[in-house]
Amino acid sequence: MSRPAALLPTRRTGLIVAALAPLALLLAAVVPQAWIVAPALGGALLAMVVLDGLFAGSLTDLRAIVPEDAEVGEPASLSVLAELVRTGPRARPEAALACDPRLAPGGRIAMALIPQDGVWGGAATLIPSRRGTGAVNRVWLRWTGPLGLAHRQVERALDDMVRVWPNIAPVRSPALQIFLRDAQFGLIARRIRGEGAEFEALAEYEPGMDRRRIDWKSSARHARLFAKEYEVERNNQIVFAFDCGQAMCEPIDGLPRIDRAVTAALTTAYVALKAQDRVALFGFAARPEVATPFVTDSRDFARLQRAAAGLDYHPGEPNFTLALSTLAGRLQRRSLIVLFSDFADPTSAELMVENVGRLVERHVVLFVVMADAELDSIATAPVDDMQAVAEAVTATSLQRQRALVLHRLRHLGVRVLEAPHDKIGTRLLDTYLAIKREGRIG
Fold it and tell me: Is the pTM of this model over 0.85?
């Protein structure tokens, strides 16, 4: 059973009391025998507050419309509807909801309500900052009496849950859909020709083609230049591996690195499935946590999204030795391994470099890391005092160490992709297509 609406004084009442208190003290000092005036004024004000609250009207129904699903970093709409009777024009209802902090900063959502078709309604936008399931567990509503001296307040318990999924907005974007309708990755059934490894046909040479593909024997026989065309390989195995450790869980522009990595990976995975490749996800921290079988059909893309939603946030360091050896043992054929990770210094990256180097012996490894914009800004910030000098020197040193680790990975044969967080998705997609055209996976 819901509690009756509480009656509380408004801010206006507090201001009136604050203004009358000095007058009452002055009156008591100047005319002591008139002390009875002060409590009389207080009693009159209290009576007006009670009457104002009684004439504020009553609540007949209160509903919160909460979305069942949302995507991390993407806005989702939440609304509150209230049916109030016998309210005056100064009612001005306001609502507030308590929720999981991953749904809104501080775990609180506030909104003002306006008349809508006989009811009062209001809406707010929540932008989840982390994946998982967040609860919206309580709602408050208050409205003001006709004099603005009192307001009524109602509290209701809620049991709504919002499932926060990985962000796949780029998959739905018109730009990607147009790209998928292109001749190379169209929905029509045709052979995919490009720069792969399997010979497909001869075509007349055109300016801009790679001269190394000219078939000189055929050209001499026909007295015209002909170039070889190769079929781009299909049915390649692509594994997106995610480091879920502390460094990847740190926020970058409001969202954890791991969530930005998941968005980039799912976008590329969708294109890979359309290109008839096989895709799997692998997530690890202290131990392997998520390991999906290979998905072969774009209609099963939702399975990858659900698996990515299970990638948790961990405060500790990842165990690269256990994770990458487990991954290598699962792969029976040469694959493209896209590893999303980050590191703070060369010492913490030592085991990562060593174990990634072992993967290169059998597989194509693409190491993806997001550029540290905060470190760059500190290194290039104006130097005004000794504190700024120390910060700039430290940031520059960390940049050099970071570049050294990436250089070591390249020296081992690892393909390294470093890009800003807002461009990592398109850069990853371009790199995947380049590797595929080169025929390096199969």
Answer: no
